[in-house]
Input
Amino acid sequence: MKTISILNLKGGVGKTFTAVNMAYELHRRGYNVLLIDNDKQGNLSKAYSRYDADTYSPAARLLSGDWQQADELIQCTDYKGIDIITANMALLGATWQLTACAEEMQTGRYKRLAEAEIEFYGSCAVWGKYDYCIIDNPPDIALNVINALEITDEIIVPVKIDEWALEGLDILREQIEDAKQFNPDLKLKGVLVTSYQNTDGEAAGREWMQQQENINVLATIRYSKKVAESTFTFKPIYEYSPCCGAAQDYKKFVTEYTGKAR
Ligand SMILES: Nc1ncnc2c1ncn2[C@@H]1O[C@H](COP(=O)(O)OP(=O)(O)OP(=O)(O)O)[C@@H](O)[C@H]1O
Ligand SMILES: [Mg+2]
Output
């Protein structure tokens, strides 16, 4: 099991879109994927048609420790091989509550899941059942994100090229260093350029980024008009428009990432 956190303190840079489409591409290669929606907006849950505004969401229960069996938290999606722990606004309350309880253990919440068993697949370890766990994070670092970093192997940072593209990256690095006290193996894998349009400005911005010694640019995902069209279909972009630039680029990225083509 490899756990990947999609993280950037900036909003609207393509974190959720990356989580949706990486999961789908991994699934197309035959991998079992567990998604954790770690954002109160619940956009990842919406994208996989599992959003429910009216419950105390599984992600909130995971953070608050209010669960017995992993089966209570994990749901199947329409894709066999992609399961999800969904979120809604209840995750905000759970995060506040945990922040206020200074005397309680504020970490180790998601780690409990890593050590749990899932009955649905015939009593196996959650971490044994899945090949990848992808965590979609909000644009901040609160206790739910710290708990996610505890179980994360690699962090991927989606960035949109603009003059403030790398704003917050230093803070993110500091947070990663702090999180290493709980998880010494945590690694910043690199940045993924998202919604890329081949203008002079963006090309120059990307080139500058590629020249920075402390930034590893993993790949570039092109901007596609098809993405906006596909929003209300609740489908991964490859299913909606397999030939568009964004679909092709996620496919290529995951092939490079896993070493397995599809
Ligand atoms: N390659 C792309 N081409 C066109 N539009 C894109 C592309 N990638 C992402 N988008 C669009 O950009 C918007 C922001 O993407 P997304 O919701 O994934 O960002 P986010 O970082 O998760 O935002 P937040 O911080 O609010 O959670 C969405 O409308 C999404 O459809
Ligand atoms: Mg998001």
Residues 2-192 form a domain with the Rossmann fold fold (CATH 3.40.50.300). Residues 15-16, 39, 43, 136 surround magnesium ion (ligand 2) (CB under 6 Å).
